[in-house]
Every structure is written in structure tokens, then in C-alpha cells.
Design brief:
This protein has about 90 residues and is mostly helical. The chain is built from four helices and no strands. Helix 2 packs antiparallel against helix 3 and helix 2 crosses helix 4. The mean pLDDT is about 90.
């Protein structure tokens, strides 16, 4: 499973490093996440909204390339990492 710096792949590692390092999903979402999958789905939507804000044109080449890169991200893995870190901080 760990193929790039301990992550599934380069895209997952890079998105976690560049976008979610220090990210607190509780600042954006009130209430518990039922699972890592649910949190991962939220994270994916969050990044897509960031792209739409930063890049703008959802039909443009840059946006489409960014979305293609994001299609390789294992969102559940990033979410589980966040949940594990939270559990360590609370314990």
C-alpha cells in the first residue's frame, strides 16, 4: 500500500502535504464524521471548491488537468490519517 513516502501514491502524498498539513476539518464541518470514507468525501469536495475558486473556469485546461491529478488521490487514506492524528491528540 505504501508506495510514496508512506502513502499510496504521489498524488495522495502531495495533496496531503500541500493542502491538508495542519488542516482541521472541524473548522469547516460541524458534527462527527461517520467514517473515514465520509470525511474523505468531504475533503475531496473541499479541494474541488478550492480549485474552482483559485482557477475559476471549470471547463478550462488547467482545471481539467488539476482534476485529472486529483482523480489519483486516495481521499479515504488522507481522512484516516487525520482521524488517527486526532485520536492520538485526544488520548
Amino acid at each position: 500500500m505504501s508506495n510514496y513516502n508512506g502513502w499510496t501514491n504521489y498524488a495522495t502524498w502531495r495533496v496531503n502535504l500541500e493542502i491538508f498539513d495542519g488542516f482541521d476539518p472541524g473548522e469547516y464541518w460541524r458534527g462527527p464524521f461517520e467514517s473515514a470514507y465520509d470525511l474523505g468525501d468531504f475533503l475531496k469536495g473541499h479541494v474541488e471548491e478550492l480549485l474552482e475558486t483559485e482557477i475559476g473556469n471549470a471547463e478550462g485546461l488547467v482545471f481539467l488537468y488539476a482534476m485529472a491529478f486529483l482523480s489519483d488521490v486516495d481521499w479515504t487514506e488522507i481522512a484516516q490519517h487525520m482521524l488517527d492524528n486526532y485520536a492520538e491528540q485526544v488520548a
